């Protein structure tokens, strides 16, 4: 299960209703920020999420609307005297910008809290046991941008009717079967395949920040339960979208539909459009589309 709290859903210019980009993803007791736009620390408080157990930031790219909230967040965490180290993941160019930004405020190699920097390259970022995070490159203007795949494994569960029919008692023997090891009951060998049901429960969440194209991304997005992606423009302004390195709502929806995405969530909203216009363009192609608003909480 993944729980998402949208902390900022605007494009580069915020509005009274939409803050700069930031998304909180919670899974298996861990809490991870994807991007940290200006004002993210206040959005964490306003959403009720707070700062507890917040020790990792994934950055999609280095544009300022996605990173300017980091100094303020670190300053507050330092004042709260948190001892946890913060790990920031990003492309090498993105990390270089963040390192220089922090150095300009507090001096080279210094920050209000301990910070570790982890450069991204395509492949696995984290294996947390109950879920993994992988990253993949995304084209967006002149940045070293990345998207992220959060995935929890499908699991096979013991079938109570089969256990009863085979006379497997409650207790350690069932634990052995659940772990994939055969057992013996009353002289009879019982294999895990005899009592385990089909795989179920695995979830796949894909988060993509700004993108000028979806070319080459299908293998990472295919069959996702949810795709979070930008839709800064409408199709009538597609040439402008190309010039600024962004997608239209129709492009995002067509990409999601072509890759069997369960639900599309559009973000990075521009104030030039009404939400209803954006949603109408997307739902004509993929009915299960929605627009994210600040403080929306979604569970998959």
Automatic annotation (TrEMBL):
Q: What class of enzyme is it?
A: hydrolase
- Give the residues the record marks as binding Zn(2+) 2: 65-66, 210, 268
Q: Where in the sequence is the active site?
A: 65 (proton acceptor)
Enzyme Commission number, as recorded: 3.1.26.11
One of its Pfam families is Anti-Pycsar_Apyc1
Catalyzed reactions:
Endonucleolytic cleavage of RNA, removing extra 3' nucleotides from tRNA precursor, generating 3' termini of tRNAs. A 3'-hydroxy group is left at the tRNA terminus and a 5'-phosphoryl group is left at the trailer molecule
Among InterPro entries, the record links this protein to: Metallo-B-lactamas, RibonucZ/Hydroxyglut_hydro, RNase_Z/BN
Enumerate the spans annotated as Metallo-beta-lactamase domain. Answer: 19-200
Cofactor(s) of this protein: Zn(2+)
CDD domains the record matches:
RNaseZ_ZiPD-like_MBL-fold
Keywords attached to this Swiss-Prot or TrEMBL record, sorted alphabetically, are: Endonuclease, Hydrolase, Metal-binding, Nuclease, tRNA processing, Zinc
Residues that bind Zn(2+) 1? 61, 63, 140, 210
What Gene3D superfamilies is this protein classified in?
A: Ribonuclease Z/Hydroxyacylglutathione hydrolase-like
GO MF terms here are: 3'-tRNA processing endoribonuclease activity; zinc ion binding
**Cofactor remark from the record:** Binds 2 Zn(2+) ions.
Q: In UniProt terms, what function does this protein have?
A: Zinc phosphodiesterase, which displays some tRNA 3'-processing endonuclease activity. Probably involved in tRNA maturation, by removing a 3'-trailer from precursor tRNA.
Quaternary structure annotation from Swiss-Prot or TrEMBL? Homodimer.
Q: Which family does it belong to?
A: Belongs to the RNase Z family.
Quote the protein name from its UniProt record. Ribonuclease Z
Naturally occurring in which organism (per UniProt): Bradyrhizobium huanghuaihaiense
The gene from which this protein is expressed is: rnz
